[in-house]
Design brief:
Layout (H helix, E strand, L loop, with lengths): L2 H10 L6 E4 L5 H15 L5 E6 L3 H17 L4 E5 L1
Parallel strand pairs: 1-2, 2-3
């Protein structure tokens, strides 16, 4: 489902909603830590998560991986946020 559709549905239902934004870490340890954090924070029921995407380099690939894994593993809609 598109994020805008989720937002519109929440507004239609007069329901509060929130999202979380993450930045891709620079180290493998940071990646593992971020996945733990995403898992814990997804238990709070965000409407979606947002991961910063920087053009080029390994950060863009990591952003795609973080979004894909968040959707498939944690079941939360993920959005790539372009800086």
């Amino acid at each position: 489902m598109k994020i805008i559709d989720k937002i519109n549905k929440a507004l239609e239902d007069d329901r509060c909603f929130w999202s979380f934004e993450y930045f891709p870490p620079r180290t493998e340890h940071g990646v593992a830590n971020l996945y733990d954090r995403i898992e814990r924070m997804c238990n709070l029921g965000p409407l979606f998560i947002d991961v910063t995407w920087r053009w080029g380099g390994k950060s863009s690939d990591l952003t795609l991986d973080l979004c894909s894994n968040s959707q498939t593993i944690y079941g939360v809609e993920a959005n790539m946020h372009m800086t």
